Each structure stands twice: as C-alpha cells, then as structure tokens.
C-alpha cells in the first residue's frame, strides 16, 4: 500500500465507519459472555453439568480462535464492506438459531454459527482502525476498541442476569437479533472499502490443521473435568491437538503466503504484549464465568444479583478505556500495564478466600477494582505490540493477537473450570456449599499465579516515548517500501 493510498484512507470520514464497527463488535463480543449468568438456568432447563454447560462460552471462544487466523486471508481477499456484511449476516443467523433451539445440541450449533461471524469482527475492526488512524492517534482509537472489548463482556452478565430473572433465557437472543439487523442495514449504506486486496491463496490443509489443533486442545482440557486427566479421551485429544498445532506452525513458515504469519512473533515487544494480553483476557473471561456459578450455586444469590456484581466494574471499564488510550498516546504502555497487572494480581488473590457467606458488597468492590486494572492493560498492551509492525503486517498481527487471546481464554476458562470442579472437597448430592467453594478458591489461586507471570513480563516492555515509537515505525515503513513492488510502482 503506497504512502498516498494510506494518506487518502486516513482522510475519509471516520465517524460512520467507527460507529458501525464498534456496534457490530460490541454485539458480537456481548454474546461471548451473555451466557455466563444464564448458565445455571440453562443447566437446570436442559439437565447439564458445569463442565458441559461451560461449552456455551468456550465453544464460542474456540470457534472465534479458529476463525480469526483465516481473517488475515479474508481481509486481503474481500472488500471491507462485503466481509463485514457477510460476518454480521452469519452472526445474525446464528443468533436466530440459538433463540429457537429446542435442545442443547442445536443451541451449541447456533453458538458455533454466531462465533463464525463474530470471529471475523475483531481482527477486521482492529485492522481498519489501525489503517484509518495515524500512529499518533492509535492509542485513542484503540481505546475505543478497548471500550468494546472490555465493556461488552462486563455488561453481558448484568444484562443476562436481569433478563433470565424476569424472562426465559431465550430472551437473550431475541434482544440481540434486531440490533444486529439494524447495524447491518446502516452498514450497507455507510461503510466504505479501506483494505488493500492482494488475493493470497488459501491453504486448505492449514485451516484443517488449525481447527484440529485448537479444537483438540480445548476439548481435552474441557473434558478433563468430566472424565479425569488420565482418561483416554482426554489424553488422545490433547495429543492430537498438540501434534496438529505443531505441524500447522511449521507449515506456516514454509508457505509463501501463510494463513497465520508466525514471523510477527520474532518481534520481542509484540510477543511479550501478546502473552500479557492472553493472560489478561483469561483473567477477564474466567472470573465472569466462575463468579456467577459460585454466587448462584454455592452462595445463594440470584441471577440478577450475580449480574449486578459485574455492573460497577463494567461502568468503570467503559469509562476508563478511552482515557487509558489517551494516556498511552502521551506516555506509552509500560507504566499503565505494570500498574494494571499489579491490580489484577491483587484482586485475583482477594478472591481466594471466598465462603458461602461472602457479602455482595465485597464481591462487587473487588470486581470493580479488578476491571479498573484490566482497563489499564488490555488495549494499551495490544496497541504497543501492533505499533511494532509495519502496515503490511498489521492484518497478520491483529489476526495473531486475537487468535492467541481467544484460544488462551478458551483453554484458560476450561482449565479453571476443571480446577474448580476437581478441587472441590465434595461434588456429590450431599456436598455442602463450603465443599464446592474450596474449588473456586483454588481456581483463583491459579488465576493469581498467571497474573503474576504477566506482571513480571510487563517489566520487559520497552521504555519508549510516543515520538520515538512513531519515528521507528516510519523508518520501518520506509525500509519495507524500498524492498517492495509498491515502491517500484508495480502495484497500486
């Protein structure tokens, strides 16, 4: 993409594009956690165990993780407008399937269809925003993305808690469906084409290997709670997933046009930022999955009350994300991320002493502080990593970042749920609430350890001013153009 082309893109009217993408992404991510508070109701309605029901959340994140690597290819093959409309129409159809699902199998199928469309949304939105905004305004732009990424999962349990308290859980999908249709109609008229189409070849084997790899790992980790870690099903799933994923990674290095460009991980800052983002997203999604189960099944709270615990944190995160974006534009990511991860580690530890009598106020205050910390980490660390990449590599960087984050959240949530059920002192019919709460506390000990690892990694993020970052990025762009066909004028 030439310098003139980039400048033309950055001059277009950003407001309608930003509004359409933020709305679509908000609705897509909202569905990622909408099931959290409703899970106990669905468990009762369909006679499911915790480990089976949690697939409503983890299958959504897994399919996201499978779809996201493909988006780098899709972004370079189809126009922005066509890709967005296709993704949202797919998502709308999946939402309708979930709303009318007569059994758990159809409900899971609907979640898979939803996720297939939603998986395209985040990397597409991040790629578009990084192209239409100059580097000195990317922190603010990604702060708006952070508002969606953070606020949607946070508000989901609150909204679902209210709806399932007074209506059937199917109302969750009936509320979302018309909003998706409205966004599609508006996008049809206002969305413009932004991305540069290079028409890369798709590698079917890579798609197959990534699907088996990520799917096998998640199924193995999730099934451990039902069958035990020594189960043949669990061992074979983990083994098949690991082998497939290993072959997939080595294949990407050999392909001229890889489906997922692992070479972006050669950049040290990008790799550290991606790992920190993975751990932070595990902390966000896992707590929103575990807390409603603990509150409703072990502490005697209602679905509405478990949703209310999330609300103050949701408001704080929504308020803070644009602010942390502006702070990032002025001072960089290092101190924001260190402070945020310190808060996340402390609040994870504060959730390791829960009892059946823990107060609603304690749960709410700790969660609000936790979300304040996450808002200081999520998008600043993502933007810091992506700013290390050239314009050509941004689609691959966003695909890699989103893939790793979604898969980590899927596997991380499955592992923590497994730890919770396996560590419970008693899970039989005569189990006391205190017996089951012990498993919740152990799960949060694991979450605390993960947050501590991320905090240590945060100290390896470079101390670099925004001005130095912009200069380094422009130098990288200039060097790339010298070696590209764009520079010789062969390609527009």
Automatic annotation (TrEMBL):
Keywords: Cell membrane, Membrane, Transmembrane, Transmembrane helix, Transport. Its main location: membrane. It is found in: Cell membrane. The keyword Transmembrane helix applies. It is a multi-pass membrane protein. The keyword Metal-binding does not apply. CDD domains: MFS_LmrB_MDR_like. Signal peptide: none annotated. It comes from Virgibacillus natechei. InterPro entries: EmrB-like, MFS, MFS_dom, MFS_trans_sf. This is EmrB/QacA subfamily drug resistance transporter. It comes from the Bacteria.
């Amino acid at each position: 993409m030439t310098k003139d082309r980039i400048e033309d893109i950055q001059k277009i009217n950003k407001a309608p594009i930003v509004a359409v993408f933020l709305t679509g992404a908000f609705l897509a991510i909202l569905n990622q956690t909408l099931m959290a508070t409703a899970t106990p109701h669905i468990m009762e309605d369909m006679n499911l165990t915790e480990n089976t029901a949690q697939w409503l959340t983890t299958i959504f994140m897994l399919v996201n993780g499978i779809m996201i690597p493909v988006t780098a290819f899709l972004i370079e093959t189809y126009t922005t407008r066509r890709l967005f409309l296709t993704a949202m129409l797919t998502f709308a159809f999946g939402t309708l399937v979930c709303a009318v699902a007569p059994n758990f199998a159809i409900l899971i199928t609907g979640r898979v269809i939803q996720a297939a469309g939603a998986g395209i949304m985040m990397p597409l939105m991040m790629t578009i925003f990084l192209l239409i905004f100059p580097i000195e305004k990317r922190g603010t732009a990604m702060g708006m993305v952070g508002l969606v990424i953070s606020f949607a999962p946070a508000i989901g349990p609150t909204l679902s808690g209210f709806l399932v308290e007074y209506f059937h859980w199917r109302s969750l999908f009936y509320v979302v469906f018309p909003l998706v249709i409205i966004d599609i109609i508006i996008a049809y008229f206002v969305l413009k084409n932004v991305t540069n189409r290079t028409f890369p070849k798709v590698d079917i084997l890579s798609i197959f290997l990534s699907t088996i790899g990520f799917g096998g790992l998640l199924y193995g980790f999730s099934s451990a709670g039902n069958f035990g870690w020594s189960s043949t099903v669990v061992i074979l799933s983990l083994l098949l997933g690991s082998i497939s994923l290993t072959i997939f990674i080595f294949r990407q290095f050999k392909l001229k046009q890889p489906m997922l460009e692992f070479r972006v991980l050669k950049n040290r800052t990008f790799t550290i930022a991606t790992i920190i983002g993975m751990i932070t997203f595990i902390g966000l999604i896992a707590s929103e999955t575990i807390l409603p189960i603990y509150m409703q099944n072990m502490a005697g709270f209602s679905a509405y009350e478990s949703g209310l615990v999330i609300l103050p944190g949701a408001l704080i995160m929504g308020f803070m994300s644009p602010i942390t974006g502006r702070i990032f534009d002025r001072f960089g990511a290092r101190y924001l991320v260190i402070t945020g991860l310190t808060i996340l580690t402390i609040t994870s530890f504060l959730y390791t002493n829960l009892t059946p009598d823990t107060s609603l106020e304690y749960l709410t205050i700790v969660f609000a502080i936790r979300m304040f910390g996450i808002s200081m980490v999520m998008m600043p660390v993502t933007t810091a990593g992506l700013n290390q990449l050239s314009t050509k590599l941004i689609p691959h960087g966003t695909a890699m970042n989103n893939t790793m984050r979604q898969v980590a959240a899927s596997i991380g949530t499955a592992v923590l749920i497994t730890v919770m059920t396996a560590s419970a002192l008693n899970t039989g019919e005569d189990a006391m609430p205190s017996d089951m709460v012990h498993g919740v506390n152990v799960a949060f000990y694991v979450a605390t350890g993960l947050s501590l690892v991320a905090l240590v990694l945060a100290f390896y993020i470079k101390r670099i001013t925004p001005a130095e970052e912009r200069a380094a990025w422009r130098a990288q762009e200039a060097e790339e153009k010298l070696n590209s066909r764009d520079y010789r004028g062969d390609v527009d």
